[in-house]
Design goal:
It is built from ten helices and 15 strands. With about 300 residues, the chain is α/β, with parallel strands linked by helices. It folds into two domains: about 150 residues, no CATH class; about 150 residues, Rossmann fold (3-Layer(aba) Sandwich). The strands form three sheets. It has a six-stranded parallel β-sheet with strand order 12-11-10-13-14-15, with helices on both faces. Strands 3-2-1-5-4 form a five-stranded antiparallel β-sheet, sandwiched between helices. The protein has a four-stranded antiparallel β-sheet with strand order 7-6-9-8, with no helix packed on it. Strand 6 and strand 7 form a beta hairpin. It is elongated and about 70 Å long. It starts with a helix and ends with a helix. The mean pLDDT is about 90.
Length: about 300
Amino acid sequence: MKDWGERIEAYIGAGQLVCRIVVAEAKGSTPREAGADMYVTQAGIWGTIGGGALEFEAMKIARQMLAELADTQSRFARQFRNFPLGPNLGQCCGGQVTLLFEGFTPDCLAELTAILSNPASGYIHQAGSLVIAQLSPKPVAKISFDSKKQTLLMPPILPNTPLYLYGAGHVGRAVMGAVSGLALDRVWVDTDKSRFPEDTDPAITLAPATDMTIIAEHAPPGAIHIVMSYSHALDEALVYTILRKGNFAKLGLIGSRTKKQRFCNALKKRGIDESALKQLICPIGLPDLRSKSPAHVGLSIAAQIAIWLEKN
């Protein structure tokens, strides 16, 4: 996942003006949480702060800011605005949102690049300041808005969680498509390159390997592993390798409770202890979604992965 600075750098490095909009504070029922952001140019948008009337109004303000920057030949602008969703915008949410608007021109590129060159423990965005962002002297664990000082503290974007999916069959393809919007670095593993679809998302790292357990053995700490190869024997070998190695976030295995029990019996004989076996999640997916079509199973597994990421 790109940090906000890297995304802005890409826009202004290409000669575009861009406005970054951030949910600085969300009170009550709101369409998005604090920290959600979007990027608006005169021609397009990326990301979302929740859609609806709030986003429509925010885009209008952002483009007005960009037009003023162009007219005045200013290099940068920042402001906070508060939006009561019910009375002013007619949204049913009824909550209240404060948005940060930051407008950038290509003249900001050198300063932004200098900021990004320093390791950040957090960023300070203050109204009235023409400094793009100050580096926080203390680690910032979560977003925090001070309405009196009109100051927003933001943590740096954390690295994506590695996802290793073993198996490029119908369900594997459905899962990879369904998780595309999540904060994951996707690695797709199977025994041969021909197993993968020709139109694979270029953001996915393909890892064809005659012995897939070698890939599992060298996966980074904290990875999520989802095992669904074309062979029970391969599945068992992969699960054994991952459990023996340890140091992973989650291990999911496609299949039934009966499959899990058979695997656990076999893995005990190979030296995997009970505490390690408790980390094996099988069946994987949400129990209320019962259809076994690849599309349904893929969505179910993707939803479970999304829950894991939120709880992390």
